[in-house]
Amino acid sequence: MSTMSRAPDPDARTAIEVRDLVVRRGGRDVLHRFTCRVPRGRVTGLLGPSGSGKTTLMRAIVGVQRVTAGTVTVFGAPAGAPELRRRTGYLTQAPSVYADLTVRENARYFATLHGSPATEADRVIAEVGLADAAGQLVGTLSGGQRSRASLACALVGRPELIVLDEPTVGQDPVLRDDLWRRFHELAAGGATLLVSSHVMDEAARCDQLLLIREGALIADDTPDAVRRRAGTDDLDEAFLRLIRDREHAAGAPGDGEHAAGAPGDRDTDLERNPS
């Protein structure tokens, strides 16, 4: 474990604070003066259609995204600060494990980087339901299994902040349910989880929701509060109403049309889980 002293956190209830964040890529803003807070010890869902800026925001939070303006602080320190490295676990959309190593070898490699024993690797492999495949080469796994192998590596060292970019994609309903149950167990144990998805059925599983579209924050509240604000019990419909209300308030074209060249022109509708 790291022996580096930690700076006192200015707000013990806040894990992540994003202020006026701007990320510009390819001559356009991917995030537009984005501001939000993520509370500690809860599962916060980052929901939005493909191309809305979810991955860019997560990259900024873990400190691997070049930003144009604004600030991102994690536990009171600038995102990406050296003292945050062992406190943060990050799961990317694409599996970030070595295909020519077994699941166990990958997890043990990451455990070694954390200064953790081999038993830590076995623990996280079991937690993601891959104990039976621990000796299998990652390159021979299914897509869903590779994602879980990556998740196991992200959980090594019991990080305080766990950033998960669409962790349930490709998982069957039973495994997806098991993963969400595990996410809440981690939060109950004090960890903070930020979980992205474009599948609306997962929104109700979160304690807090951040709805993002075209690089802007549409809603930041609990699922129940989002339902009340939109005047419907259906979260999918609630999000659509909030998006349309924002478009009308801004004078944007309605009925799902967007200005040419705007971020998020494609895949603008949030999806329901088909399973």
Structure in a nutshell:
One of its GO terms (molecular function) is ATP binding. 31% of the residues lie in helices and 23% in strands.
Give the SSE string. Answer: EEEHEEEHHHEHEEEHH
Q: Distance between the terminal alpha carbons, to the nearest Å? A: 41 Å
Strand coverage percent: 15-25%
- Counting helices, strands and paired strands, the structural category is alpha/beta
Would you count the extended β strands for me? 10
Q: Count the DSSP helices.
A: 7
- The shape, in one word, is globular
Our Rg estimate from Cα atoms comes to 19 Å
Approximate helicity band: 25-40%
| Low-confidence parts | 1-9, 254-269
Sheet bearing the most strands, described? 6 strands, mixed
* Mean pLDDT metric: 87
The side-by-side strand order for the widest beta sheet comes to 6-7-8-3-9-10
Q: What quaternary form is this?
A: single chain
Pfam family, one: ABC_tran
Keywords: ATP-binding, Nucleotide-binding
Protein name: ABC transporter ATP-binding protein
GO molecular function: ATP binding
Structural features, described:
The chain is an alpha/beta fold and 275 residues long. It has a domain at 97-159. The chain is 31% helix and 23% strand. It is built from 7 helices and 10 strands. The chain has helices at residues 54-62, 103-114, 118-127, 143-155, 173-188, 223-230, 235-250; strands at 14-25, 28-39, 43-47, 69-74, 77-78, 88-91, 161-165, 192-197, 208-213, 216-221. It has a 6-stranded mixed sheet with strand order 6-7-8-3-9-10, sandwiched between helices. Strands 2-1-4-5 form a 4-stranded antiparallel sheet, with helices on one face. A hairpin with a 2-residue loop joins strand 4 and strand 5 (77-78). Helix 2 packs across helix 3 (118-127) and helix 3 crosses helix 4 (143-155). The protein is globular and about 55 Å long. The termini are far apart. The model is unreliable at 1-9 and 254-269 (pLDDT under 50). InterPro entries: AAA+_ATPase, ABC_transporter-like_ATP-bd, ABC_transporter-like_CS, P-loop_NTPase.
